[in-house]
């Protein structure tokens, strides 16, 4: 029996995935939660075999959950089910130790098959995305990504500096590096391009 924890912030999708997996004889949905923090608490309490999660969620994102699972050395495999058909997201997911990456518009039976494959120690990655993922590398480093994300949320250099415990000059340097690497004119264009590519 494959024991699954489901994390998805959209109630209708969460209900549908839970019902879908519940029809499989060899899969048991232990719980279905709406945000990353709840998922982290339930992970530790229930110790599932597989976490099925979206990328974008309130609290912790699916990628942050995967990173935390890897850091803590928990024996939980992570399968991401998302609308983000972007190679940048897949690359970051693989870097975070994710075992599966499926798109929400894939046929329903693919999810159960993916869970079985992952449980056996394999990987289940959307094939078209897998091809794209290696065609264009993410030029940003972690700190540039962090600073650019906050700038895109409307924070000033001073506010970003305070939040990340950096000097304003260092923040401006990171923003300048990100803008240069992405070949755009300003921080807003850099943020938009990086979001579009799945690098944020």
Would you give an account of this structure?
It is a single chain. Strand 4 (77-82), helix 4 and strand 5 (100-103) form a beta-alpha-beta unit. This protein has helices at residues 11-22, 36-46, 62-72, 87-95, 109-119, 127-133, 142-152, 157-164, 168-182, 187-197; strands at 2-7, 27-33, 50-53, 77-82, 100-103, 124-125. The chain contains ten helices and six strands, in the order βαβαβαβαβαβααααα. The chain is 53% helix and 14% strand. The protein is α/β, with parallel strands linked by helices and 200 residues long. The model has no long low-confidence stretch (mean pLDDT 90). It is elongated, with a radius of gyration of 18 Å. It has a six-stranded parallel beta sheet with strand order 2-1-3-4-5-6, sandwiched between helices. The chain folds into two domains: 2-133, Rossmann fold (3-Layer(aba) Sandwich); 142-197, Arc Repressor Mutant, subunit A (Orthogonal Bundle), CATH 1.10.10.10. Residues 3-119 form the Response regulatory domain. This is Response regulator transcription factor. InterPro entries: CheY-like_superfamily, Sig_transdc_resp-reg_C-effctor, Sig_transdc_resp-reg_receiver, Tscrpt_reg_LuxR_C, WalR-like, WH-like_DNA-bd_sf. Keywords: DNA-binding, Phosphoprotein. Residues 133-198 form the HTH luxR-type domain.
Q: Supply the CATH class of the largest domain.
A: Alpha Beta
Q: What integer is the average pLDDT?
A: 90
Strand order of the largest sheet: 2-1-3-4-5-6
Order of helices and strands: EHEHEHEHEHEHHHHH
Domain count: the total is: 2
Global morphology:
elongated
In CATH, the architecture of the largest domain is 3-Layer(aba) Sandwich
Q: What ranges have pLDDT less than 50 throughout 5 or more consecutive residues?
A: none
Radius of gyration: 18 Å
The chain-level structural class is alpha/beta
Strand element count: 6
Q: Span between N and C termini?
A: 36 Å
């Amino acid at each position: 029996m494959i024991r699954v924890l489901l994390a998805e912030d959209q109630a209708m999708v969460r209900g549908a995935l839970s019902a879908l997996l519940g029809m499989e004889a060899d899969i048991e949905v232990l719980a279905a939660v709406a945000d990353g923090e709840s998922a982290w608490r339930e992970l530790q309490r229930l110790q599932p075999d597989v976490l099925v999660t979206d990328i974008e969620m309130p609290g912790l994102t699916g990628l942050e959950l995967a990173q935390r699972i890897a850091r803590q050395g928990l024996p939980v495999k992570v399968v991401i089910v998302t609308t983000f058909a972007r190679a940048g997201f897949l690359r970051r997911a693989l870097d975070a130790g994710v075992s599966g990456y499926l798109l929400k518009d894939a046929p329903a039976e693919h999810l159960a098959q993916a869970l079985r494959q992952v449980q056996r120690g394999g990987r289940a990655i959307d094939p078209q995305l897998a091809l794209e993922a290696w065609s264009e590398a993410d030029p940003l480093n972690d700190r540039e990504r962090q600073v650019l994300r906050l700038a895109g949320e409307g924070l000033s250099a001073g506010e970003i500096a305070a939040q990340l415990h950096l000097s304003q000059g260092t923040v401006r340097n990171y923003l300048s590096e990100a803008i240069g690497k992405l070949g755009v004119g300003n921080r807003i264009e850099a943020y938009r391009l990086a979001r579009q590519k799945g690098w944020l």
